Amino acid sequence: MLTHLLVLLDTAAPSFCYYPSGRGPGQTMSPAVLATAVAFARRRSLALVLLYGETPLPAACRDIIAAAGPAAIVPAALAGRHPDAVPVLVAGQDDPGAIPGVRPQLIVRLPRERLADLAAVVGVALERTTRLNLYPLDIDRYTDGDLALYRRQLGLVAGLLAARYRQGALTELSILSDRLLLSRMNNCDAGTVHLTVAPDGRLHLCPGFLHAGAVGSLTGGIAVANARLLALENAPVCARCDAWHCKRCIYLNRKTTLEWNTPSRQQCLLAHHERETTRLLRQRLADLPAFARQAPIPALDYLDPFSQISDGGLGHE
Amino acid sequence: MNDQRRKIGAVTPAERDEIKALYERKNALGELFRALVGMAAEETAASPLYERLVADMAATAGKFQAWWDEKSRTYGWENISGHSWEIDFATGDIYLRRQ
Amino acid sequence: MDNLDRLARPEPSWEEDRAKNITFIVTEDCQLRCKYCYLVGKNPGRRMDLAVARQAVDYILRERALFAEPSVVWEFIGGEPLLEIDLIDRISDYIKLRLYETGHPWFDSYRFSLSTNGLMYGDPRVQRYIAKNRTHLSIGITIDGIREKHDLMRVFPDGRGSYDAVAAQLPLWLRQFPGAATKVTIAHDDLPYIKDSVLHLWGLGVQTVNINVVFENIWQPGDDALLEDQLLSLADAIVDRGLYRQYRCSLFDDTIGRPLDPAGDNQNWCGSGKMLAIGAQGEFYPCVRFAPHSMSRQAPRSVGNCRDGLDTNRLRPFLALTRLAQSPPQCVACQIASGCAWCQGLNYECSDTATIYQRATYICPMHKARVRANRYYWDRLRRKLGAGTC
Question: Taking CB atoms and an 8 Å limit, are A312 and C325 in contact across chains?
Fold first, then answer.
């Protein structure tokens, strides 16, 4: 069921997950389109999430926003001006230390070339938030070496988390602690739970699909062709997987496999390295009452769930 | 049974697989040989392929014949002049066929 | 009833389920312009270069983990493949040579296969190729049935029918490949000729006639009844004349028309992705139906190329395909679903979002008609064989 409308105020707004950021100068949303978007969301009881770029908005837009009071995701540079918003940082470009205070939520995007810094980046970012959403980027270009490095870095991060948990901290890290708390798939669900409206008023599955055709408009309504392919039961690989924290990113799916419902090998392996690290983390912390209450995560003899459904064989896992 | 052939025995699946593999290899070697004869010299000159191939053909033909000799002795298959044995790879049945 | 069991199931193909099928698209040209052909972009310009073919062979033989099947069928397709018989000959020689040189297990378990319109079958170069590869080769000639049907559909660019030219090649073909089958295609206009065509082909000595009704959106109201009528009268002829003893027509298959179990019968129908097609420029495709000359609505869908290798991520959706994930609710609930086919390439071509996961169902009424006719046929045959007259 649709619950959220993401409002792309600026086509050059920084990405908040796997898709690439738009290049500036972007097109910004007009007050008229923004007002229509707010009304569209209100009629459908959708919560608004604004995606800010760095281009200043007209005063009329700011008035509409103030009246609607939506959630927002902002570039790191605007974090100071939006104390209630979720800041997005790119590791190696933005300094988490410059984010004022401790945020309830922080998003860090990790370029492939900074992979070796993963644990260090997480360590610094966790000083600034109680929940960190981390997105490794360019994973479609990950080699087997990168995947091995990711696994090693996850092990270091698990050590950091374990130390924090033993001190009683309530820290969440999307790629590790989410799987502990879930009992079924909890994916991004773009196109199903949320849609994105662009500055021109057209609707998209998510900001990553901005240039890949619309799925309706604010005035014409929602028209998602083949919406069934967004559902878990029509995703043969994911339907049998228990890496429940995986974002199951349909933007990445489409980019790498040309289908919404089929993940790449890299996406599956990353999710399963995370799952396995989480499994070991839970074992390590089983003496803590909070963790003993969590259901154990079963060990698996595979990393890529694709290997469990296909007899076609692609020669590797 | 038809006028041309009649069933005279059968072999086990493992025995069937043995002769099937030899049959495939014998044919493949023969058709590679025919290909090499027609190939430009520069395409094959780099490797001592002819010698290897000829030796392989002789060895495979020998194994092929040895299989029939040994199985016919073991199972006591009928042998008539002007006829030959053949196998149905799907079933492992052995037939005597008039040539 | 052993005989009936044998009749009721399609003949297995060579090393079925064990062989990798690798197709070289040697040319996109053809002498004919068959009206039902899905190759909409025929052209004389794109033909495969020997160097490209060699690069593809070298890649495939090197990547044994990706091509791990115990057997292989190397197929040559077009357009009309025999237009490039010299190239096919050189590719075949190269394959044999490299298989042997590298000690590849496929040397002991390979076949060459091609399907032709038959026009060049008697060409001395083709005959030399057949003689050279006799024990590893299968060739199918497409003849569509009686002259009226064949010449209605299988025409030269100037509109002339090709029946006489093809029929002249059949005696030689059937001497060289006595068990060979032909492939008949049925579209709207030639529905009235099915029965006569099957009987005609059997009369010519083609013992197995494989027939497909096209998957495309061309069927009109009443076509299903026409198909059923044709199959009923064909069924009568087969049973009355005892033709089932010697001949086979793929439209009659006792395994079709049953409900399918959602869990146990969830596999994909089509083999695209498990096979590999190689385009003239060395692009890899899940089957020829995804190559540029097959596409009119969507972009060609490549899964790599012979220079960079297979893009295994792009193959995953094909290998993960299930019946349920691509079928609309009415197909999932269908009580006569078994044997209802689809073509992944057409599904992709007709899809709303450039997906292979949206099943085109234009064939539905024709499948239902075929199921009704099969029930009639097998009931008649059972009663006849049950009476001990086989």
Answer: no
For chain A, the average pLDDT equals: 94
Q: Whole-angstrom Cα distance, residue B69 to residue B78?
A: 12
Q: What is the pLDDT of residues C132-179, one digit of tens each?
A: 999 999 999 999 999 999 999 999 999 999 999 999 999 999 999 998
Residues in contact with C2: Cβ distance below 8 Å, sequence separation at least 6, in sequence order: none
Residues of B in contact with C107 (CB under 8 A): 25, 28
Tell me, yes or no, if A130 comes closer than 8 A to chain C by beta carbon: no
By Cβ distance, the residue of C92, C101, C108 closest to B25 is C108
Query: Taking all residues of chain C, what is their mean pLDDT, rounded to a whole number?
Result: 94
Which residue of C108, C109, C135 is in closest CB contact with B31? Answer: C135
Reported ipTM exceeds the 0.90 cut: yes
Tokens coding C84: 């490039």
Kindly state the tokens that stand for A49. Answer: 């999430």
What is the percentage of chain C residues whose pLDDT exceeds 90?
86
CA distance C209 to C199: 10
List the subunits that have 3+ CB pairs under 8 angstroms with B.
Answer: C
Q: Which residue has the tokens 């590797």?
A: A316
Chain A contact for C273 (CB, 8 A cutoff): yes
Q: What is the layout of strands, in order, in the sheet containing C248-249?
A: C181-186, C208-213, C248-249
Q: Please give the pLDDT value at position A100.
A: 87
What is the spatial distance between Cα A237 and Cα C357, in angstroms, rounded to a whole number?
13
Instruction: Name every chain C residue with its beta carbon within 8 A of the beta carbon of B39.
Output: 93, 97
pLDDT in tens, A41-64: 999 999 999 999 999 999 999 999
Residue C2 confidence (pLDDT): 44
Containing C19, the helix (H) or strand (E) segment is: strand C19-25
Segment C343-361 shows an average pLDDT of 97
Nearest one of C306, C301, C308 to C50, comparing CA atoms? C306
CA distance A126 to A143: 28
Where b means 16+ CB within 10 Å and e means fewer, C309-337 reads ebbbbbbbbbbbbbbbbbbeeebeebebb
Cα–Cα distance measured from residue A162 to residue A282, given in angstroms and rounded to the nearest whole number = 9
Domain-wise residue ranges, chain B: 5-98
Mean pLDDT along residues C253-267: 90
DSSP structural state of residue B10: E
- Asked if C136 reaches chain B (Cβ–Cβ under 8 Å), the answer is yes
> Contact C96/B32, CB-based, under 8 Å?
yes
| Partner-chain contact A315 C312, CB within 8 Å | yes
CATH C-level class of C18-141+271-320:
alpha beta
Strand C71-77, strand C19-25: pairing: parallel
Other CB atoms within 10 Å distance of the CB of residue A1:
6
- Smallest Cα distance from C184 to chain B, Å: 27
Q: Is some CB atom of chain B closer than 8 A to the CB atom of C51?
A: no
Q: Which residue of C has its CA nearest to A267?
A: C313
CB contact under 8 A, A312 and C274: yes
Domain locations in chain C as residue ranges: 18-141+271-320, 143-256+365-390
Question: Residue A133 forms beta bridges with which residues?
Answer: A107
Q: Low-confidence residues of chain A, pLDDT below 50? A: none
* Residue pair C125/C89 in contact by the 8 Å Cβ criterion: yes
Q: Which residues of B sit within 8 Å Cβ distance of C?
A: 21, 24-25, 27-32, 34-36, 38-39, 43-44, 47, 49, 53
Chain C neighbors of B28, CB-CB under 8 A: 96, 99-100, 107-108, 110, 136
Which residues of chain B carry a pLDDT beneath 70? 1-3, 40-47
Q: Tell if the CB–CB gap between C319 and A306 is shorter than 8 Å.
A: yes
pLDDT at res. C199: 98
Please list the residues that pair with A86 across neighbouring strands.
Answer: A73
With an 8 Å Cβ cutoff, is A105 touching chain C?
no
